[in-house]
Design goal:
Elements: E1 8-13, H1 27-46, E2 50-55, E3 69-79, E4 83-93, E5 100-112, H2 130-151
Antiparallel strand pairs: 1-3, 2-5, 3-4, 4-5
The structure holds coenzyme A.
């Protein structure tokens, strides 16, 4: 399995129910879409059930207005024993002009579980494309930060 084979693209239109009083999308709504898109990638890689173990800090760099099209693209960057890092890039697209802007990038950790709810091993990724190695190396740095933070709780 290569990172490319785990890719998922999810498209949403920002509807009134997704927005706050300013007519822009709720952060929590974006986080929910991010979680779903990333879960599809993680399941593809694990070939079985997964749970979200953590979501790294999310920074929303630009508001997304009602009526905009939101596109989320995810892929697994790295696997360890039972856990995987999934990266998600979120872009907003103007529905008529097609003009695009970057809204946020998210990193999530999923853990594969078996029927007994215990963690189970996931396959190692085979690096395919040029950017795979860069993402794979960066994922290790992020994991170390996460695990340090987890210990400190
Ligand atoms: C995630 C969960 C399965 C981990 O179970 P656990 O018994 O703590 O298992 P371990 O400590 O052995 O961790 C399993 C793996 O997850 C990783 N992990 C656990 N918590 C993590 C975190 N917060 N961030 C990053 N990685 C984490 C571990 O490093 C380990 O990785 P590895 O097997 O690839 O080396 C468990 O905490 C759980 O079920 N959490 C709730 C998940 C959930 O319901 N999510 C939905 C939102 S609430």
């Amino acid at each position: 399995m290569t990172p490319t084979e785990t890719r998922c693209t999810m498209t949403q239109i920002v509807l009134p129910t997704h927005t706050n009083n300013h007519g822009t999308v709720f952060g929590g709504q974006l986080a929910a879409w991010i979680d779903i898109c990333a879960a599809v990638s993680a399941q593809r890689c694990a070939k079985g059930p997964v749970v979200t173990a953590s979501i790294d800090q999310l920074h929303f760099v630009a508001p997304v207005k009602k009526g905009m099209v939101v596109e989320l693209r995810s892929q697994v960057n790295r696997t360890w024993r039972s856990s995987m890092e999934v990266g998600v890039r979120v872009e907003a697209e103007h529905p008529f002009t097609g003009e695009r802007s970057h809204c946020c990038t998210a990193y999530l950790t999923f853990v594969a579980i078996g029927q007994d709810e215990k963690t189970r091993p996931v396959p190692e990724l085979a690096l395919g494309e040029a950017d795979d190695e860069r993402r794979w190396a960066a994922a290790q740095d992020r994991r170390e930060v996460r695990l340090t933070q987890r210990k400190g709780r």
